[in-house]
Design goal:
D-Maltodextrin-Binding Protein, domain 2; single chain; five-stranded mixed sheet; DNA-binding; 293 residues; Arc Repressor Mutant, subunit A
Length: 293
């Protein structure tokens, strides 16, 4: 016997007539009759009495149907499980991101995501952008947000966000009184720099070099959140995302615009050749809703 024959038998028993079973299965009534006859030959006993065009189940058919119904309950469970896996994956989502996003957009987006999917477990790692890329490329994580200095070979990368960067200044520093800072304002100023490989650092270095300006580098770090904490402590000024600076405003830090503009780009990274599950797509939607351009 095969599954199709059993499915036809189940449909006839459930719906009461061969014609109704044919409608439900979207096949012809002769096809229903043929499948039942083939099943009867396979199992070695009659399933229906045929009288005046009607199919009346035998006692053996009723006993057999109990077993079939039990098996179909398992099949329905398997179909539901397959749909759940297709739409929601493993029931968990793993997000890797650079530090600037981990303390700004990500908490708000994940809170909104959690309200939609309270039973989905969430893993977050804040790492350097190059490590984020490796975690996504290896398939260990589902969604990544990284600065654009990385090599995107081995991942699917799209532009997620652009921001105009600001200069974070200690609140008691003379430059804190300026709304807009220019390269000359940073000459000889104690400065907390991003890592040399950071795209924003390289762009700022290019602008300063073009103006013959040399700030006094007192500390280097790959993390803009660290820069804000150091600025808050009065160690120096630094180039940061306005989102990163936001929690520090009014708490020992002032954010000043800088001209000429320097913009950062954040990339959305996904594992290659993998269609996002429903929960991954929903997470991306929430992240996008909180991004700024």
């Amino acid at each position: 016997m095969n599954l199709r024959q059993v499915e036809v038998f189940h449909a006839v028993m459930t719906n009461g007539t061969a014609s109704r079973a044919a409608e439900v299965l979207r096949i012809s009534q002769p096809a229903v009759s043929k499948a039942i006859q083939e099943l009867e030959r396979e199992i070695g006993f009659s399933l229906f009495h045929r009288a005046k065009g009607r199919m009346l189940p035998t006692e053996e058919a009723r006993l057999f149907f109990q077993e079939v119904a039990s098996s179909f309950a398992g099949l329905i469970h398997l179909r539901a499980a397959a749909a759940r896996i297709r739409d929601f994956g493993s029931g968990e989502i793993r997000v890797a991101c650079h530090s600037a996003v981990s303390t700004t957009i990500l908490p708000k987006a994940l809170r909104a995501f959690q309200l939609r999917h309270p039973d989905v477990s969430i893993t977050v790692q804040a790492r350097m952008s190059s490590v984020v890329k490796d975690l996504i490329a290896s398939g260990q994580f589902d969604v990544g947000l990284a600065a654009d200095e990385i090599d995107v070979t081995g991942v699917d990368a799209t532009l997620f966000m652009r921001q105009r960067l600001v200069i974070a200044v200690p609140a008691d520093h003379p430059l804190a009184q300026r709304e807009v800072l220019h390269p000359a304002d940073l000459h000889g100023t104690p400065f907390i720099a991003l890592a040399p490989e950071d795209t924003a650092r390289r762009r700022l270095d290019g602008v300063l070099a073009a103006h013959g300006v040399m700030p006094k580098i007192v500390l280097e770090t790959p993390y803009s959140t660290t820069i804000c904490a150091m600025v808050q402590a009065g160690i120096g000024c630094g180039l940061v995302s306005p989102l990163t600076a936001e929690p520090y405003l009014g708490r020992g830090l002032v954010a000043c615009a800088f001209e000429p503009e320097i913009r950062s780009r954040t990339l959305l990274l996904l594992p290659p050749n993998r269609r996002p599950s429903r929960i991954v797509a929903d997470c991306i939607a929430e992240l996008t809703a909180f991004s700024t351009d």
